[in-house]
Amino acid sequence: MVQPSEPEFEQAYNELLSTLKDSTLFEKRPDLEKVIPIVSIPERIIQFRVVWENDAGQVQVNRGYRVQFNSALGPFKGGLRFHPTVNLSVLKFLGYEQIFKNALTGLNMGGGKGGSDFDPKGKSDSEIRRFCYAFMTELHRHIGADTDVPAGDINVGGREIGYLFGAYKKYSNSWEGVLTGKGLSWGGSLIRPEATGFGVVYYVEKMIEYATQGKENFKGKRVAISGSGNVAQYAALKVIELGGIVASLSDSKGAFIAKEGVSFTPAEIEEIAELKLKRKSLSELAEKYAAKFDYIEGARPWVHVGKVDVALPSATQNEVSGEEAATLVANGCKFIAEGSNMGSTQEAIDVFEAERLKSPNGIWYAPGKAANAGGVAVSGLEMAQNSQRSSWSTQEVDQKLKEIMVNIFNNCVNTAVEYSSEKGDALPSLVKGANIAGFVKVAEAMHNHGDFW
């Protein structure tokens, strides 16, 4: 299942397995333990070279991948990532998480992931278009509306999805809902750009309501957010809309930390969004924002942000260390939910789970496979709209998104309670609830298909 050179996948595999074993699942359902080695190997891995030409007429070559991990619940579904750090370990970890995340949405979607070690930063539109067409030359053979439906991920936004869709249509001679995150005039869904960020806030809204028995909500809560891409931007906007205070945003070069009593405003988040569309660093706004925000070069927000109520890691994997988790706890953070995939290291999760057990008011941690499922949920809704050849209103999609996130939260809580081996009155483990609920749904489908007996 796990290869020696696959640390990210090993982390995801061990995190799932350890939570399943630290519950009563295999006591109550011993037949499901045999599924672990089967579900942990992808159904198929496609690797290929991508040869393209830069603006100087020079031939360039990159590696392309698609990990088709599990199709028990529906077509393979998961993003494409263009980043120099892309390798099989990263894509297997992301695809593995995607299986169970997609299961939690309640929609008919399997799990997969793909991408390339291509770096779009510093590339012209023409170079990115040529790369996307070259990438799709091979990928189009392996995907389709009822086979595998990729979406965007890091560095694959609306522009890239447009080029990839155009290439697929050209090579396959078929217009179909084969990619999600499409433009609104050619099959895209409203709320798709906002979905992951909105969804994580809807999930935390339920966490706060449950933990405080309905006495509290986001109003007045100080919220630390990392990242400054789509997820972070829309999470921040939704927090502000619900009365919260956004205390930080960041990128790979550094972090903005709000001064005492200050919050980011929608106008500032819009300005940051425009900056990021140009693939520029937050540091370019450091001087302009100096009166309201401290810019800390090379830092993540967690140890610098001070007292916070909520933390939303929304940048990349392993962005909260054990030490940073301990600092968040010490600074009074009560709720942490991952907008990014596997945003917390295992050491950080251990800190959060240990604190949760100390009292009914301990910190409550929600893993990405539950909290950030809003993005793929609306991708599933986009697939449904494509199948119907219809478009739903903003209100319809947003309402369906909120219902899905509430259902995921309730499923996580109920499953955690059902299979808990814990004593005491601590809040239910959302990481165990998410892992068990997603795993059981996939395992039962695989059993029904005869994948094991």
Explain the overall architecture.
Helix 7 (195-211) crosses helix 8 (230-241). The chain is globular and about 60 Å long. It starts with 6 loop residues before the first helix and ends in a 5-residue tail after the last helix. The strands form 2 sheets. Strands 9-8-7-6-10-11-12 form a 7-stranded mixed sheet. A 5-stranded mixed sheet has the order 1-2-4-3-5, sandwiched between helices. The model has no long low-confidence stretch (mean pLDDT 96). It is 44% helix and 15% strand. The chain has 453 residues and is of the alpha/beta class. Helix 11 (346-358) links the parallel strand 11 and strand 12 (364-366). The chain is built from 15 helices and 12 strands. Among the domains are: 39-176, Leucine Dehydrogenase, chain A, domain 1 (Rossmann fold); 195-371, NAD(P)-binding Rossmann-like Domain (Rossmann fold), CATH 3.40.50.
Short description:
This protein is 44% helix and 15% strand.
Secondary-structure topology with pairs:
Elements: H1 7-21, H2 25-28, H3 35-39, E1 44-53, E2 59-70, E3 76-82, H4 88-105, E4 111-116, H5 125-139, E5 148-152, H6 158-172, H7 195-211, E6 222-225, H8 230-241, E7 245-251, E8 254-258, H9 266-277, E9 293-297, E10 310-312, H10 322-330, E11 335-337, H11 346-358, E12 364-366, H12 368-371, H13 374-388, H14 394-418, H15 430-448
Parallel strand pairs: 3-4, 3-5, 6-7, 6-10, 10-11, 11-12
Antiparallel strand pairs: 1-2, 2-4, 7-8, 8-9
Helix pairs in contact: 1-4, 4-15, 5-6, 7-8, 7-13, 7-14, 8-9, 10-11, 13-14, 14-15
